[in-house]
Amino acid sequence: MDKKLLIWYQEHKREMPWRETHDPYCIWLSEIMLQQTQVVTVIDYYNRFIKRFHDVKSLAEAEEQEVLKYWEGLGYYSRARNLHKCAQAIVSIHGGQFPRDYKQLLKLPGIGPYTAGAILSIAFNEKVPAVDGNVMRVYSRYFELSCDISDSKSRTIFESKVIETMPEDARHFNQAIMELGATICTPKMPKCDVCPIASNCLARSTNSQLTYPIKTQKIKKRHEKVSVFLFVNQGRVMIEKRNDALLLKGLWGFPTHHVAMSQKEDDLTSEVLSNEAMMNWIHANYDFRGHIVTRVPAKKHVFTHLVWHMTLIVVQIESPRAIDYPEIKWVEPSSLEAFPLPTAFKKNLSTEMLEALFRL
DNA sequence: AATGCGGGGGT
DNA sequence: ACCCCAGCATT
Question: What gap in Å lies between CA A254 and CA A246, rounded to an integer?
Fold first, then answer.
């Protein structure tokens, strides 16, 4: 398996900025960004990030808000918060050097079994497995392994199998398996006709590629109806830093009010908040008065485990005058870009909309 | 062991 | 419009 695979990888690997170095900082950063995120998306973020935070020390010294700003739009923001904490731990505990040790790496925030293996193998060429979803898909097909990959216990089974089959060139082998999973041995329509290891693939021989990997877990998303308030005062709109009790904690956004929740989308259509109920909510949470200018049905936004059905509520605030607090800012629409604003809010803000707000 | 956590791509 | 993807932390 390994010989053909390594030759294929050498010839067909995609170019990525982090593949031009073995610097543990670059490998670590890229691996964190690549969790649940595709290569094409990561490249721009990675380049901008490296340009601003060129080593672990400069990242450790940064403000969390700025790190989040550089992560804006990438999602799973706890990755960014843990990345920042991890950089600080590496500076304070390990003298700014990444530990070349599996157990030590695992203790660091945001680094789990996969990422520890990826850093050790790719940066240090240690013969350690790095099992991600691609590896599990490739191995379960190649060996027709029937263990359930949605069960976290299965990871160790794949790790043993990887150790059995791993050549000395761990650095390239681990990346080759993942590259194969990402480009050839894909979930839906695997390109077996151009796969370098198809001749020995068990699933290929029995035409069972699509029954592997075995995965039982089903995801049931709940639906939430959410009012998103655009408080407008003298050409400025209010944003607040989302607190730890909220989704998207630490990022900025418009005030949100939970109207209704259901397992079924249809149950939400009848749930409408009256103007009076809204004004009561506003007054209970903020000490100013105003009137509702308009309601705009907004795009729905799908998160990992829930769906937001948003309505934008534009409210003209008459009193008090716009005052900033540490966690509440009144900003001109053009200044919104200075804050880390998650996609759920961003995608509902057209230029026309902002222009209209500005005129209020 | 189960749940929380974004956003993008393919069909 | 709908389906799929999937590491780590917390509980």
Answer: 12
